[in-house]
Amino acid sequence: MDKFVVIDLETTGHSPAKDDKIIEIGIVVIENNQITDTKTTFFNPDQSIPPFISNLTGITDADVKNAPFFHEKADNIVHIFEDSYLIAHNVPFDLGFLNAELEKNGRSKLTNPVIDTVELSRILYPEAPSYKLGQLAEFLDIRHDDPHRALSDAYVTAKLFLKLLKKLHSLPYETVNGMLELENMLHSDLYELLYERQQALAFSNDEENIESFQGLAFRRIDVEKTEKESLDESFGTLLDDIYEENGVLSQHIPNYEKRSGQREMSEVIFDAFHGHSHALIEAETGTGKSLAYLIPAIYDAVKTKQRIVISTYTTQLQSQLIDHEIPLIEKLFPFSFRVAILKGKNHYISLEKFAHELFYPSENNYDIALTKAMLLVWLTETVTGDIEELNLPSSGFMFFKKISTEAEGMMDPQSPWFSKSYYQKARKKAMQADIIITNHALLCTDMFNDYSFIPNYKRAIIDEAHHFEDTAAHHYGLKLDYNHIQYLLNHIGHKEEGKMFGKLIARFSEFHDQLPIDNWDNILDELKFEVEELFRSLYEFVANKRSNSNSISDIGRLQCRLDELEQEEVWNFLEERVTRITFFIRDLIHILAMIEQVLELNEALDKFDKDDMNGMTVVLQDLIDGFEQLFLVEDVIPQVKWVEADTKGSRNAVYLYSEPTDVSTLLGSTFFEQKESVVLTSATLTMDKSFNFIQERLGISSERLFTKKIDSPFSYENQVQLMIPNDFPDIKFGKMDDYIYATCEAILSLADITDGRMLVLFTSYDMLKKSYNLLKETMDLDQYVLIGQGITSGSRARLKKNFQTFEKAILLGTSSFWEGVDIPGEDLSCLVIVRLPFQPPKHPVYEAKARHLEEQGKNAFMEYSLPNAVIKFKQGFGRLIRANNDRGIVFVCDARIKKTRYGRYFTSSIPAVPITYDSTVRIMEKAKQWF
After folding, report:
1. Taking Cα atoms as reference points, which of 500, 560, 494, 478 lies closest to residue 527?
2. Taking every annotated instance into account, which residue ranges of this chain make up the domain Helicase ATP-binding (predicted)?
C-alpha cells in the first residue's frame, strides 16, 4: 500500500464524548512519495465556537455559519481514505473525533492502518527538542505558515511524514531488524514499511560510518592519538592578537565591543597558574567569563603539556562551552588543541547491556518499546553515547539506568565490547585532551573516591563556583526515600514474579532443589512491611511535630532534624525497626551469595547472570549502608541528618537526608591542598565586596590565594531602577495575608506599566501558590498569561519558553528561578523580589550549620545566613540585565533592605543603581515616567 492520507482537524473542544464538534478538516494525499491532492472545508458544528478556540485558530461563528454539516460530506471523506494509511500528528485525537462523527451519522468507523507522526518523529529524531508540530517543523526546516489551521497543519504533517519516510529508508539492516521486533508494541502500523526496508537491504550495510556487532548497528567512532603541539608564542602577544581593537575576536563577533574586564580576567588566571596559586574571581554579568577563562586554560595546557579540568554546575553550561565557546576559540587560536567532555558513568549507554535487553528483555511495555526504538536510531548517529542528547519519555530514563555504563560494573578489558564502550572512549579522549570539561557532581565524586574517575590533573577552573560547597556536601551525604526503596525492592521481586530475582532463578530450574530460595518471598515481604512501617512512623511524627511550625521546604514539604527525634520516646522504636530492616536485607544478600556459590560449582553462571546478581547485591548493600549511616553508626565528620514529609503525598511519602555540616576541612585537605592551582569563578562570590565568606566555606588557605572582582561592562545606573516601597505590611506582626495582598496589587500595577514581561521571585512555594491564586482571581486573564512554577505544568525550560512566547506574561518562580534563567531584551522588563532570600531559620541544614558556627564562637547570622542571602539576592538581581540595551525595574517588596542595619549589605553588593524608597503610589508614578 503506497497511498498515505494525512488528516488534521480543528474542533470546538477536546472531547467528542462531551459533544464537541469538528469545525474544519484538512486532508493531504500522498502517492508515490509525492503530495498529489489537498482538500479542506469548514463544517457547521450547530453550536457556538468557544472564544478560546476562535483565538487559537482564527475560526469564528461567522466562518462556519453557511458551511455544510458533517453528514453532508461524510461519504466523500470515507472515500478518500479507501486503501490508504491514515496519518496524523497525534492519531488518537484526529481519528477518535472522525470516527465519533462517522458513528453519530450512521457510518462505519475507519479501520485503516495508522501512522502517528508524533510517535514516528520520536523514534526517528530522538534528539529533537520537542515533538509539537510547530517546533518539529522549525527543527527540520519545514515552513509552517498558518499554524492551528487544518489544511496548513495537515500539509506540514505530510511534509514531515515524507522526511520521516526518507530517514527510515536510510537506516541500516540491524536497526530495522530491531525495530521490527518492537513494532507490535508501538501505536503506528509500521510493519510493512520496515519489512520493505529490511528486504531492500538484504543483510548488506551500505554505510561506511556504521559498525555492526552482535545484532546492533552503531556509528563508528575512532579516537585517534594525536601528537601534542608545541607553542612558541607568548601569552601577552596572544591576548593582544585576540582582544585588542581589530583583533581576531572583533573579526568573528558581530558588533564586537572590547570589554577590559575580559582581558583582565584572562591575565589573572594565567598568573594564578604560574604562581601555583588558587584564585577567587567574581566576574559580574556581561564580562564574558567563559571565553576569559578558556583562553588562558587552553594556552597553558598546550604550553605546559599538562591537562586542565574545567568544571561547571549545569550540563547546560557544559554543552554551551562545547557547542559555542570552543568552536569560536578554534577560530581565534593560531594552534590546535584538544577538548574532551567527561561525565559520570550513568550518562553513557552500555552497548552490551542494551543488546542484552533488546534480545532478552527483562520487561516490556509501550514506553520501554518506544525508548528501545529511539535508542536503536540514536546509536546510528551519536558519537558520545550520552543520554543528555536524547528526549526520552519519562519512564525511558528508568530503563536507561538499567543499560547505562554504571549498571555494567567493572568491564573486562578483554571483552569485545570494551573497545566499543562510549564511556571508555570518553575516558580515552579525556586522557589525550588538553582540556577536560566536566561537572561539579563528577568532580566531587572523583574527589571523594581517591581521584579514580577523572584522569590525573593539577590545575582546575570551577565555574558557577557559588554551588561548589553545596555539591560537595550533597555528594558526601546521602538520600533515602520510601518510594525509591519500594521501587528497588519491587524491581528485585518475588520468586514467581518475573522480575529480576524471578527471571534469574527461572534460568536455572534444573538446580532449584539445590538453591536456598524457599524463604526468599517471606523475607522480602517482611522487609517491605518494616520499611513501610518505618516511613509511616516518621511521617506521623514529623506531621505532628511540625504542623504548627514554619519549617517547610520550598517545595512544600515538612522538615525535621533527626537529632530532634533522638530526644523522643519514638527513637528507640525507630532504631529497632532499622535494625530489623538491615537484618532482613542481609538475609537476602546471604541467599544471593549461596545461590552464586551453588551455580559456580555447577559452572552454570554466565557474565549477565553474574552482573544481575552483583547488581541486586550492590543495591541491597547500599540500602544497609544508608540506613546504618542515618540511624545506627557514629559519624566520622559532623553531619546534619533530617527528614522531609510530603504532606500532599501518601502517608509514607518521606525523604531522609544527611550532609556534612561543614565541608571546608574536607575540601581543604582533599582538594585545595592536593592541587597546584584552582581558579573559582562566578558572577556572585562576594558580600560587601569581600571574599571572606566563600573562602572560609570552601576551606581555602590564605597563603596561596588571591582574589579579584571584575566589574560588569553594563551601564547599570542608566539601565536599572531599584524600587522599594515603604508602606508594605510588616510580616513580623503576623500580617502574611496582608503582605501577599500588597504584593499582588503591586504586581498588577507594574504589569500595566511594563505590559507584563515580569519575573516574580519568591522564597517560599506556599507564598507563590497563594499569590498565584489571588492574582488569578483579580487580574484580567484575557490580557495577561499567568505562569506559576509548580502550578503550570512543565519543566523550568518549558515555563521560560512559554513566558517568552506570550507577549504579556507574568512568571512566578521560586528557588531554581533565582539563577541560570536567561531572558534577554524586552522579554523581561521588570523583576519583583518578594522577600529577601534568607533560608528559613527552621530549615534543618540551616539550624545544624548555625549551631556548628555558634559552638565555634561565631555569629551564625552574620557569617552564614546573611552572606548566603546576599549571594542569592545578587543571583536574582542578575536575571534582569543580560545585554547592553536591556532596561528594567527591580522592585523589592521587602523593606528590610532599607530598614535594617544589615540591609546595606544587599545594596552594597550589587552594582551601583538609582534607589527609590517611597510609597507604592509614588513609586508607580516614577516607574511610569521612567518607561
Report:
1. 494
2. 248-538, 270-489
With beta carbons less than 8 A apart as the criterion, state whether 309 and 710 touch.
no
In sequence order, what DSSP letters do the residues of 384-445 get, joined into one string?
S-BGGG----HHHHHHHHHTBGGGG-SPPTTSTTGGG-HHHHHHHHHHH-SEEEEEHHHHHH
Alpha carbon distance 267, 282 (integer Å): 14
Three-state DSSP class for residue 343:
coil
User: Is 306 within 8 Å of 458 (Cβ atoms)?
Assistant: yes
CA geometry: angle 691, 696, 700, nearest 5 deg = 90
What pLDDT is stored for residue 667 in this prediction? Answer: 95
Residues 6+ apart with CB under 8 A from 355: 214, 215, 216
Q: Which of 292, 380, 395 is nearest to 681 (CA)?
A: 292
Q: Residues comprising the binding site?
A: 283-290
Contact 688, 862 (CB under 8 A): no
The superfamily (CATH) of domain 716-930 is: P-loop containing nucleotide triphosphate hydrolases (3.40.50.300)
Q: Are strands 435-439 and 654-660 parallel, antiparallel or unpaired?
A: unpaired
We find that the CATH architecture of domain 3-168 is: 2-Layer Sandwich (3.30)
- Segments making up each domain of the chain, as ranges: 3-168, 478-660, 716-930
**Dihedrals φ, ψ of 881, to 5°?**
-105, 110
Residue 390: CB atoms within 10 A of its CB come to 18
Q: What is the pLDDT of residue 794?
A: 65
Annotated binding site for ATP: 283-290
Question: Using CA atoms, how far apart are residues 76 and 427, in angstroms rounded to an integer?
Answer: 62
The grid cell for 282 is 567574581
**pLDDT attached to residue 548:** 47
- Which candidate, 725, 729, 710, 931, places its Cα nearest to that of 829? 931
Residue 686 CA to residue 840 CA, distance in Å, equals 22
Q: Tell me which residue of 487, 214, 441 sits closest to 317, measured CA to CA.
A: 441
Beta bridge partners of 723: 891, 916
Q: CA-CA distance, 179 to 374, in Å (whole number)? A: 9
What pLDDT, on a 0 to 100 scale, did the predictor assign at position 499?
82
Blockwise average pLDDT, block size 10, the chain, 931 residues: 91 87 93 92 89 82 89 91 94 93 91 95 92 88 78 93 94 93 94 89 69 90 71 88 88 83 95 96 92 96 95 86 93 92 92 90 87 96 92 84 84 84 93 95 92 94 95 92 90 86 85 85 95 90 65 66 80 91 96 90 80 88 94 87 81 88 92 96 92 94 94 90 92 83 93 87 90 88 80 71 76 82 70 92 85 90 93 90 85 94 94 93 90 77
Q: What is the pTM of this model?
A: 0.84
Amino acid at 575: E
